[in-house]
Design brief:
Blueprint: H1 2-11, H2 15-29, H3 39-53, E1 60-64, E2 81-85, E3 98-100, E4 116-122, H4 132-145, E5 146-157, H5 171-174, E6 177-178, E7 188-192, E8 197-203
Parallel strand pairs: 1-2, 1-4, 2-3, 4-5
Antiparallel strand pairs: 5-8, 6-8, 7-8
Length: 209
Protein backbone atom coordinates (compact mmCIF):
# COMPACT_ATOMS: atom_id res chain seq x y z
CA UNK A 1 0.00 0.00 0.00
CA UNK A 2 2.81 2.42 0.86
CA UNK A 3 4.57 1.62 -2.42
CA UNK A 4 1.34 2.29 -4.32
CA UNK A 5 1.02 5.70 -2.68
CA UNK A 6 4.62 6.52 -3.58
CA UNK A 7 4.10 5.53 -7.22
CA UNK A 8 0.88 7.54 -7.40
CA UNK A 9 2.64 10.55 -5.90
CA UNK A 10 5.55 10.32 -8.32
CA UNK A 11 3.23 10.14 -11.33
CA UNK A 12 1.87 13.57 -10.43
CA UNK A 13 5.35 15.13 -10.43
CA UNK A 14 7.55 16.35 -13.25
CA UNK A 15 10.87 14.61 -14.06
CA UNK A 16 12.72 17.56 -12.51
CA UNK A 17 10.72 17.25 -9.28
CA UNK A 18 11.33 13.50 -9.13
CA UNK A 19 15.07 14.00 -9.65
CA UNK A 20 15.15 16.63 -6.91
CA UNK A 21 13.23 14.42 -4.47
CA UNK A 22 15.48 11.44 -5.10
CA UNK A 23 18.54 13.64 -4.58
CA UNK A 24 17.15 14.89 -1.27
CA UNK A 25 16.33 11.38 -0.04
CA UNK A 26 19.77 10.11 -1.04
CA UNK A 27 21.55 12.96 0.73
CA UNK A 28 19.45 12.37 3.83
CA UNK A 29 20.23 8.65 3.72
CA UNK A 30 23.98 9.30 3.83
CA UNK A 31 23.73 12.07 6.41
CA UNK A 32 24.35 15.07 4.17
CA UNK A 33 22.48 18.35 4.75
CA UNK A 34 19.90 19.80 2.36
CA UNK A 35 19.79 23.47 3.34
CA UNK A 36 17.61 26.15 1.76
CA UNK A 37 19.66 29.26 1.03
CA UNK A 38 17.31 32.02 2.15
CA UNK A 39 17.91 34.83 4.67
CA UNK A 40 15.53 33.37 7.26
CA UNK A 41 17.02 29.86 7.04
CA UNK A 42 20.54 31.23 7.20
CA UNK A 43 19.58 33.20 10.31
CA UNK A 44 18.08 30.09 11.89
CA UNK A 45 20.85 27.67 10.91
CA UNK A 46 23.91 29.88 11.31
CA UNK A 47 22.96 32.12 14.24
CA UNK A 48 19.95 31.00 16.28
CA UNK A 49 20.29 27.21 16.54
CA UNK A 50 24.10 27.17 17.05
CA UNK A 51 23.81 29.76 19.83
CA UNK A 52 21.34 27.65 21.77
CA UNK A 53 23.28 24.46 21.04
CA UNK A 54 26.37 25.93 22.71
CA UNK A 55 24.54 26.64 25.97
CA UNK A 56 25.06 24.17 28.80
CA UNK A 57 21.61 24.92 30.23
CA UNK A 58 19.91 23.82 26.99
CA UNK A 59 19.67 20.06 27.32
CA UNK A 60 16.23 19.05 26.04
CA UNK A 61 15.12 20.61 22.74
CA UNK A 62 11.88 20.25 20.78
CA UNK A 63 11.81 21.40 17.15
CA UNK A 64 8.33 21.66 15.67
CA UNK A 65 7.81 20.96 11.96
CA UNK A 66 9.96 18.79 9.68
CA UNK A 67 10.77 18.82 5.99
CA UNK A 68 13.58 17.85 3.63
CA UNK A 69 15.65 20.88 4.67
CA UNK A 70 15.53 20.28 8.47
CA UNK A 71 17.01 16.77 8.82
CA UNK A 72 20.53 18.02 9.53
CA UNK A 73 19.49 20.23 12.47
CA UNK A 74 19.88 17.31 14.87
CA UNK A 75 23.65 17.35 14.31
CA UNK A 76 23.82 20.84 15.81
CA UNK A 77 22.53 19.45 19.11
CA UNK A 78 24.82 16.46 19.54
CA UNK A 79 24.97 15.32 23.14
CA UNK A 80 21.54 16.78 23.89
CA UNK A 81 18.04 15.31 23.90
CA UNK A 82 16.73 16.62 20.58
CA UNK A 83 13.13 15.90 19.56
CA UNK A 84 11.10 16.73 16.45
CA UNK A 85 7.32 16.89 15.99
CA UNK A 86 5.24 16.80 12.83
CA UNK A 87 1.70 15.50 12.23
CA UNK A 88 2.56 14.31 8.70
CA UNK A 89 3.68 10.69 9.03
CA UNK A 90 5.62 10.84 5.74
CA UNK A 91 7.85 13.60 7.11
CA UNK A 92 9.18 11.47 9.94
CA UNK A 93 12.05 10.55 7.57
CA UNK A 94 13.20 14.16 7.96
CA UNK A 95 12.83 14.16 11.74
CA UNK A 96 15.25 13.33 14.51
CA UNK A 97 15.89 9.91 16.00
CA UNK A 98 13.50 11.05 18.74
CA UNK A 99 10.48 11.94 16.62
CA UNK A 100 6.76 12.12 17.37
CA UNK A 101 4.05 12.07 14.70
CA UNK A 102 1.85 14.64 16.42
CA UNK A 103 0.74 18.23 16.04
CA UNK A 104 2.18 20.90 18.29
CA UNK A 105 -1.14 21.12 20.12
CA UNK A 106 -0.47 17.63 21.52
CA UNK A 107 2.90 18.49 23.04
CA UNK A 108 1.49 18.38 26.58
CA UNK A 109 0.46 14.74 26.07
CA UNK A 110 4.02 13.54 25.48
CA UNK A 111 6.30 15.59 27.72
CA UNK A 112 6.31 16.12 31.46
CA UNK A 113 5.68 19.59 32.89
CA UNK A 114 8.87 21.64 33.09
CA UNK A 115 10.93 19.06 31.19
CA UNK A 116 11.93 21.09 28.10
CA UNK A 117 14.62 23.77 27.88
CA UNK A 118 13.97 25.04 24.34
CA UNK A 119 11.08 24.86 21.88
CA UNK A 120 11.55 26.11 18.32
CA UNK A 121 8.37 26.57 16.27
CA UNK A 122 9.35 27.83 12.82
CA UNK A 123 7.09 27.92 9.77
CA UNK A 124 4.18 26.25 11.57
CA UNK A 125 1.98 29.13 12.73
CA UNK A 126 0.16 30.28 9.60
CA UNK A 127 1.21 27.17 7.69
CA UNK A 128 -1.26 24.67 9.11
CA UNK A 129 -1.48 25.77 12.73
CA UNK A 130 -4.16 28.37 12.02
CA UNK A 131 -7.26 27.94 14.16
CA UNK A 132 -7.38 29.93 17.39
CA UNK A 133 -8.23 26.96 19.61
CA UNK A 134 -5.37 24.89 18.17
CA UNK A 135 -2.87 27.75 18.43
CA UNK A 136 -3.85 28.51 22.02
CA UNK A 137 -3.54 24.85 22.99
CA UNK A 138 -0.17 24.50 21.23
CA UNK A 139 1.34 27.57 22.87
CA UNK A 140 -0.22 26.84 26.27
CA UNK A 141 1.10 23.29 26.11
CA UNK A 142 4.53 24.61 25.22
CA UNK A 143 4.45 27.00 28.16
CA UNK A 144 3.53 24.25 30.61
CA UNK A 145 6.20 21.86 29.34
CA UNK A 146 9.04 24.38 29.38
CA UNK A 147 10.98 24.71 32.59
CA UNK A 148 11.06 28.09 34.33
CA UNK A 149 13.55 30.16 32.39
CA UNK A 150 13.02 27.94 29.33
CA UNK A 151 13.07 29.43 25.84
CA UNK A 152 10.44 29.60 23.09
CA UNK A 153 11.36 30.69 19.55
CA UNK A 154 8.53 31.50 17.15
CA UNK A 155 9.34 31.89 13.46
CA UNK A 156 6.45 33.14 11.35
CA UNK A 157 5.54 35.20 8.30
CA UNK A 158 4.10 38.61 9.13
CA UNK A 159 2.00 38.96 5.98
CA UNK A 160 -1.82 38.85 5.79
CA UNK A 161 -2.06 35.49 4.01
CA UNK A 162 0.16 33.79 6.64
CA UNK A 163 -1.08 35.61 9.73
CA UNK A 164 -4.30 33.83 10.73
CA UNK A 165 -4.40 35.56 14.11
CA UNK A 166 -2.83 38.58 15.72
CA UNK A 167 -0.19 37.30 18.13
CA UNK A 168 -1.04 39.93 20.74
CA UNK A 169 -4.57 38.48 20.91
CA UNK A 170 -3.34 35.09 22.15
CA UNK A 171 -3.81 34.49 25.87
CA UNK A 172 -1.27 31.65 25.87
CA UNK A 173 1.50 33.69 24.26
CA UNK A 174 0.95 36.54 26.71
CA UNK A 175 2.17 34.24 29.50
CA UNK A 176 5.66 34.31 28.00
CA UNK A 177 8.07 37.22 28.44
CA UNK A 178 9.81 38.58 25.32
CA UNK A 179 13.58 38.29 25.70
CA UNK A 180 16.31 39.81 23.57
CA UNK A 181 18.32 37.14 21.77
CA UNK A 182 21.99 37.96 22.22
CA UNK A 183 23.01 36.82 18.75
CA UNK A 184 20.69 39.35 17.11
CA UNK A 185 20.35 41.97 19.84
CA UNK A 186 16.55 41.95 19.78
CA UNK A 187 13.48 39.96 20.81
CA UNK A 188 11.81 40.62 17.44
CA UNK A 189 13.91 40.06 14.32
CA UNK A 190 12.61 40.46 10.76
CA UNK A 191 14.99 38.33 8.70
CA UNK A 192 13.29 38.52 5.31
CA UNK A 193 11.39 41.78 4.69
CA UNK A 194 9.85 40.56 1.42
CA UNK A 195 8.14 37.57 3.05
CA UNK A 196 7.81 39.15 6.46
CA UNK A 197 9.61 36.18 8.01
CA UNK A 198 10.09 37.09 11.63
CA UNK A 199 11.68 35.47 14.66
CA UNK A 200 10.25 36.28 18.08
CA UNK A 201 12.10 35.18 21.20
CA UNK A 202 10.39 34.43 24.50
CA UNK A 203 11.23 32.99 27.89
CA UNK A 204 9.02 31.35 30.50
CA UNK A 205 9.21 33.61 33.56
CA UNK A 206 10.73 32.09 36.66
CA UNK A 207 14.02 30.99 38.11
CA UNK A 208 17.05 30.76 35.85
CA UNK A 209 19.13 27.53 35.97
Amino acid sequence: MFAARVVKGLRSRSPAEITFLLKVLLRNAVGLPNPIVTPDRETLEQIILPAYARRDDIRTVVFVGCDWYTRHYEKLFQGKSYWTLDPDRWKRRFGARRHLVIGMEQIDEHFAPGSIDLIVCNGVFGWGLNERAAVERAFEGSFSRLREGGHFVLGWNDVPERRPLELDSLVSLARFRPESFAGLGTAHHVSTPGTGHTFDFYVKPGAQP
